[in-house]
């Protein structure tokens, strides 16, 4: 009984922290330090370093990181840890950055689509900008007649004026989908144009590293197209953190490489003659956690009689019928009911996961908490894995097993020491040094104000950085 009461108390504290974090005035708005004069921004270069946990920046000396470009930007501008969105995974987070809205508002509630039976799973992700239900920075720029460049920005396929999209053929890896990128690039022929101009475009492209190629595409667009708004997504760091774990020698080494890519992007703006009028923002989508164990919610729900599964022709176990299904997002898992009014299925599903909560493996996030977080409105409740655990999307022999990854994300963004990153420097940025925690929903409005744009559906507010 004492353990159950302690869990209930922890849940109450968690809910209070969520409310305070998401609905109070952003601390940065009250504690930004002295202002300095800065030339007005006419352009913005937004560089996302996927998986850049704020600890890499705030403890750079402790880790001995050789990141001179990021250090210089922090010194010349501002740096802050960022409270993200739920789930704290790449596609919802990047969409929040460009809309200033939560997943419930903008509609990108996970990386992948929810495709339960009788749908035939395609393995597709939220690749297309048309799926976003809120106003975006590229929409706002278009209304002002400003062109937009994008390189591998999640959920932007079909958007902007110059776009090398992040999209791949289901069942393949991004490394193997060059033809798909060509097909969806904007304008048609952009990829071929860059290929003709850069003989080394794919020279360093490997299954493990692609940021050199992405940087080359971005350099070309910055120099030759000179868009007032440029959005670039670099994600080698995230890949290495999944494979080797965060804050490991492998993660440090790749981050030091990424620092060089950031320097190249700044140099490209300098060659274009636009750097002095550019606000440079380095952002990230989520923090990172070390894991060693995988929770298999399909196993738990099958044992509870809430779904049925059979083996297909290849011997793989697949769901054939369901009353409750998991929608996995790394360290988070949303439980969706086939019939939202099925009270018995809801009760049975919660009871099926209760033993794992009592063992300290996960916590149950109620629907009212999910509403406060702006998470997927279809979810009856969510599961948030505790330290060392993450969720898997397949079947296994046991409900808990070893993890094939060493790190992941997706967890509640309010957890201690689990923050995304924000750096702003250059034109329009008059403040200097560290500022208090900010919210991810404030980043889009901040970019919009720097460029004199309006984000019509933003729930955040612009940070006073001038």
Explained architecture:
- There is one protein chain.
- The protein has 466 residues and is α/β, with parallel strands linked by helices.
- It folds into 2 domains: 32-288 and 420-451, Alkaline Phosphatase, subunit A (3-Layer(aba) Sandwich); 291-408, no CATH class.
- It contains 16 helices and 19 strands.
- Strands 1, 2, 3, 4, 5, 6, 17, 18 and 19 form a 9-stranded mixed beta sheet that branches. Strands 7, 14, 15 and 16 form a 4-stranded mixed beta sheet that branches.
- Strand 8 (307-311) and strand 9 form a beta hairpin.
- Helix 10 (211-224) packs parallel to helix 12 and helix 11 runs antiparallel to helix 12 (249-271).
- The protein starts with a helix and ends in a 15-residue tail after the last helix.
- Residues 1-13 and 23-35 have low confidence and may be disordered.
Topology:
Elements lengths: L1 H22 L19 E7 L4 H5 L1 H4 L4 H9 L1 E6 L6 H10 L3 H4 L30 H7 L4 E4 L10 E3 L13 H7 L5 H8 L13 H14 L4 E6 L1 H9 L4 H23 L6 E6 L5 E7 L1 H7 L3 E5 L5 E6 L1 E6 L2 E6 L5 H16 L3 E4 L1 H7 L5 E7 L2 E4 L8 E3 L4 E2 L11 E7 L6 E2 L3 E2 L3 H9 L15
Parallel strand pairs: 1-5, 1-6, 2-18, 2-19, 3-4, 3-5, 7-14
Antiparallel strand pairs: 2-17, 6-17, 7-15, 7-16, 8-9, 10-11, 11-13, 12-13
In short:
With 466 residues, this protein is of the alpha/beta class.
Q: Find the CATH topology of the largest domain.
A: Alkaline Phosphatase, subunit A
Can you count the beta strands?
A: 19
Q: What characteristic shape results from the CA principal axes?
A: globular
CATH C-level class of the largest domain is Alpha Beta
Give the total of domains. 2
Radius of gyration using CA atoms only: 22 Å
Going by helix content, strand content and strand pairing, the class is alpha/beta
Low-confidence segments: 1-13, 23-35
The main sheet comes to: 9 strands, mixed
